[in-house]
Specification:
Elements: E1 6-11, E2 14-19, H1 23-26, E3 30-43, E4 58-70, E5 73-82, E6 95-109, E7 112-119, E8 121-122, E9 130-131, E10 133-134, E11 139-140, E12 143-150, E13 156-170, E14 173-175, E15 179-188, H2 189-193, E16 202-213, E17 226-237, E18 241-250, E19 265-276, E20 279-289, H3 320-325, E21 334-346, E22 358-368, E23 371-374, E24 386-390, E25 401-415, E26 418-429, H4 431-435, E27 443-455, E28 460-471, E29 478-487, E30 491-500, E31 521-532, E32 535-544, E33 547-551, E34 554-558, E35 561-571
Parallel strand pairs: 6-13
Antiparallel strand pairs: 1-2, 3-4, 3-35, 4-5, 5-6, 6-7, 7-12, 8-9, 10-11, 12-13, 13-14, 13-15, 15-16, 16-17, 17-18, 18-19, 19-20, 20-21, 21-22, 22-25, 23-24, 25-26, 26-27, 27-28, 28-29, 29-30, 30-31, 31-32, 32-35, 33-34
């Protein structure tokens, strides 16, 4: 009996069929792989932290990918379920129901790749186009359409695409009203000239053009239906240096995030890295001016239908207190940012290096407002809103300052089985601008973190963190303790406690009330996990603090919660 397998998917009353080649003649050429992930949380009320269980008590996010590869052909589907979605998820438009979230088919032949259906893509650093997914933020602006990639000769790379963006999920994906179109080209000189290129360095040049189309139905303004943006970039590399620069320009794009002003947008990003044995130096700067770029000018939130991505220059911390209390989110309408970092490793046998060597990292970053002057609003094209006086503004005074982070990390192995890291951070955080809390003062915070790792044996290890934050603003002082015990290759257990122990007085009144009682709130969380092959199970119980959760400069609000969480991941 000869088999011709097909996968049938029903969406909106339409039956979709994905048929594979005859397995009896090509069994060895067919490859199937994928993954599954699910997070389920059972909620309970907790008046002390303001957690309220939803009517269904249980939230579930689940998704599974299946990818088929056969020679030059590849196809894939992703099924998703939110019955209902976890509280605070996703970052933008709500997700609900179960259905098909992603599907595509692609073919590659003679350096030409064609994809139809859903796809992700990025031009340069993403200043004019980045279609991507950040699963645990709920950010997904996948394009649905067609994409072509072509390499006519080695060193020249061309891309073209058209499609509409994923907007939300309602028993399947919903799409935004705008159409996105883009072209990108890149030239690598060392690849193009091959053996004739005798230099140890390389220069890569690139350029992009992206436009969106959306019909103008606005009764008040005459809005541009086609909005274009272009970008140019270069990347120069040597064995020790890496220099990257990209400039982007967007024509006037009146939208709900900039108050429907007719002003062009600009973005400039420059990064330079020097590295040699035991030493690394990085410096960077960027300026963003009116760079919200969404395929729907009336997108309901800043997380929906973003065409571009504006990378942050601030350090993305992994420690609990700086990562969850005061992370920085990029301000697309206008910011200037600087960052510098020095990494140095003291050699073994030196006074500071000792027996095993010592690693030192110093990082500093800041983000400030643009230097601009307001312009009186007039009709349509004269509604420019403001004039930018200087692209890179050095005014660090209030209220221009958004964020400052100065941190020092010292990491050292102190024995065959011990390694310690000591980190100090100083933060200045404009909670009014970054988290949208008007009237709140600038937050000043000092944070100290001690991290340790002890290996009992090749299979058993203990990692711990002790963290403390001092602040006389916002929620005051915090302490965090974390311990993770791993029994390789299968088991691990972890315990975490965040403790907010504010002491109010005349210099730090609670919401203007100096008589308010001080808080003493613990946020404990315990977890146990089991790993077997490609399968991972984790069960957690405890409290979740209300606040913001960030990845790569993109953040979402999460509510206070208390309950039991089960996470399962699997790959095949």
């Amino acid at each position: 009996m000869r088999l011709n397998p097909c996968i049938a998917l029903r969406r909106g009353g339409i039956l979709l069929a994905l048929c594979l080649p005859d397995l009896s003649s090509a069994q060895s050429g067919l490859q199937v792989h994928g993954n599954f992930s699910s997070d389920a949380q059972y909620y309970t009320d907790d008046a002390e932290i303001g957690a309220v269980a939803p009517p269904q008590d249980l939230g579930v996010n689940a998704w599974g990918n299946v990818i088929f590869t056969y020679g030059d052909f590849q196809a894939g589907v992703r099924l998703e379920s939110y019955e209902p979605a976890l509280l605070g998820y996703p970052a933008g438009q709500p997700y609900k129901g179960s259905g098909l979230g992603y599907r595509y088919a692609s073919y590659t032949r003679d350096d030409l790749e064609v994809t139809v259906g859903n796809f992700y893509e990025q031009f340069g650093q993403g200043l004019v186009l980045r279609s991507y997914e950040e699963r645990y933020l709920g950010v997904d602006n996948a394009l649905d359409g067609a994409r072509v990639r072509y390499r006519p000769v080695p060193g020249i790379y061309l891309k073209g695409l058209i499609g509409r963006q994923r907007f939300g999920f309602d028993n399947g994906t919903t799409k935004g009203p705008g159409v996105v179109r883009g072209l990108d080209g890149e030239l690598s000189l060392s690849e193009l000239f091959g053996e004739k290129w005798t230099c140890t360095s390389n220069l890569v040049l690139g350029g992009s053009f992206v436009s969106k189309y959306q019909e103008d139905k606005d009764p008040l303004y005459v809005l541009p239906e086609n909005v274009g943006a272009w970008a140019a970039r270069l990347n120069f590399t040597t064995p020790k240096w890496n220099v990257y620069a990209e400039y982007a320009h967007k024509i006037n794009d009146p939208n709900g995030k900039n108050g429907f002003i007719y002003k062009d947008g600009n973005a400039l990003l420059v990064n330079a890295t020097y590295s040699t044995r035991g030493l690394g130096i990085t410096a960077g700067a960027h300026a963003f001016d009116n760079m919200f770029f969404q395929s729907d000018r009336a997108a309901p939130t800043p997380f929906d239908l973003n065409i571009n991505y504006l990378p942050p220059l601030t350090k993305q911390h992994t420690y609990n207190l700086p990562a969850t209390l005061y992370p920085y989110a990029t301000q697309p309408n206008g910011e200037v940012s600087y960052q510098g970092e020095i990494f140095y490793k003291f050699k073994k046998g030196t006074p500071l290096g000792g027996k095993y060597g010592t690693k030192l990292a110093v990082n500093a970053s800041t983000a400030i407002a643009l230097d601009s002057t307001a312009v009186p609003l007039a009709g349509d094209s004269a509604r420019t809103g403001y004039r930018t006086n200087s692209l890179f503004n050095f005014d660090l005074g209030l209220p221009n300052k958004y964020f400052t982070d100065v941190n020092v990390e010292l990491r050292k192995k102190i024995g065959a089985n011990w390694e310690l890291a000591l980190t100090y951070l100083y933060l200045e955080y404009n909670i009014d601008v970054i988290q949208g809390k008007p009237g709140k003062p600038l937050v000043f915070a000092d944070i100290v973190v001690l991290e340790g790792l002890h290996n009992f044996s090749d299979r058993t290890s203990l990692r711990f963190e002790l963290q403390h934050l001092w602040s006389a603003q916002d929620h005051g002082n915090w302490a965090t303790a974390l311990a993770e015990l791993t029994f390789s290759p299968h088991w691990f257990v972890a315990a975490l406690d965040q403790f907010n122990y504010v002491t109010f007085d005349s210099t730090f009144p609670r919401e203007g009330d100096p008589e308010a009682a001080p808080e003493r709130v613990h946020y404990p969380l315990a977890s146990v996990g089991y790993i077997r092959g490609a399968n991972r199970f984790q069960l957690s119980y405890g409290r979740q603090r209300a606040g913001i959760f960030c990845v790569g400069g993109v953040c979402r609000q999460v509510p206070a919660a208390n309950g039991l969480t089960l996470s399962i991941t699997s790959t095949f």
